[in-house]
Amino acid sequence: MKLSLSVRIAEGFLSKEIPILPLDEVASIAVQAGYGGLCMRASQVGVHSTPDVVGNARRILRQSQLPVTMLTGNFDVVYNNDRGPQSLRDIQPMLDLAMQLDARLIRVAMKSAEDIPWAQRAADRASELGIRLAHQCHTLSLFETVESIENTLTQIDRPNFGLIFEPANLQLCNQDYGPATIERLAPWIFNVYLQNQQLDSNGQTRLETWCRGVVAFDVIPIHQTGSIDFSKVIEGLKRINYQGYVTVHQSATQGQPPAQSASLTAEYLLCLEQSYELK
């Protein structure tokens, strides 16, 4: 299993713009905990960043020997808001930043069928540079339900446009996220995001979905059992012989230092890997 650490580890859950740790510290945490790459987000470096910031990020990544496993280059995509799909209409800034960071996968956002032709054009442009685009399983998007995900990707019909498989958002939408779904979506899975939550009608976090209204939950550590069944995810990835990155896409829970969270999560996931011999 190739583990990647999202720089979200240094963000608050609902405040995703100002990091609590600089990139060099995040990189150090990743290396010490055994991760093989960083998933970059706009909180650390994005299309808004100055050349000096981008250059410093390149230096840190090179010194740490950590590739950028995926780039989410602006806050609209991070927040999955109504402006998220605009980057498909002008993908060049994202491509330019990806090239500077040696990233070969970019996360994008889609809200309606009107975005599909723009996704095709953006994918064609990215293909010229050897870059792939992917959309996360996400509430309030065309990637909310398994059926919609499959239909949308089939319509886009580009070999370099795929999916960031993410079980927590599927759970919020009352969707299966186990081996059968992973096999169904296997042709498009470019990346895997992992985060954990406990569904609770009195939960502190409430998110809107198109398919089932508001869903309440609490964020819990990935290594805490009782909610997302990560063994089912690992089993599904084993069945399809998944060779890409598995990305820890979660900020540290309240009261837990990011370094401790990253280390415990890596240890837990590698233990699951050994159980299912996913290599």
Backbone structural class: alpha/beta
- Coarse shape: globular
Largest sheet: 8 strands, parallel
Query: From N to C, what is the helix and strand string?
Result: EHEHEHHHEHEHEHHEEEEHEH
Radius of gyration: 17 Å
Q: Indicate the proportion of strand residues.
A: 15-25%
| Major sheet: arrangement of strands | 3-2-1-11-7-6-5-4
- Fraction of residues in H or I helices: 25-40%
Number of domains: 1
Query: Could you tell me the mean pLDDT?
Result: 96
The end-to-end distance, rounded to whole angstroms, is 5 Å
Question: Can you describe this structure?
Answer:
This protein has one domain (2-276): Divalent-metal-dependent TIM barrel enzymes (TIM Barrel, Alpha-Beta Barrel). The chain is 39% helix and 19% strand. The protein is built from eleven helices and eleven strands. The N and C termini lie close together (5 Å). Helix 2 links the parallel strand 2 (38-41) and strand 3. The model has no long low-confidence stretch (mean pLDDT 96). The strands form two sheets. It has an eight-stranded parallel sheet. With 279 residues, the protein is an alpha/beta fold. The chain has helices spanning 23-33, 51-64, 75-79, 86-89, 92-100, 115-127, 146-156, 167-172, 179-185, 230-239, 258-276; strands at 2-6, 38-41, 68-72, 105-108, 132-136, 161-165, 189-194, 197-199, 205-209, 213-219, 245-248.
Concise summary:
This protein has 279 residues and is of the alpha/beta class. The chain contains 11 helices and 11 strands. Helix 1 packs parallel to helix 2 (51-64), helix 1 runs parallel beside helix 11 and helix 10 crosses helix 11 (258-276).
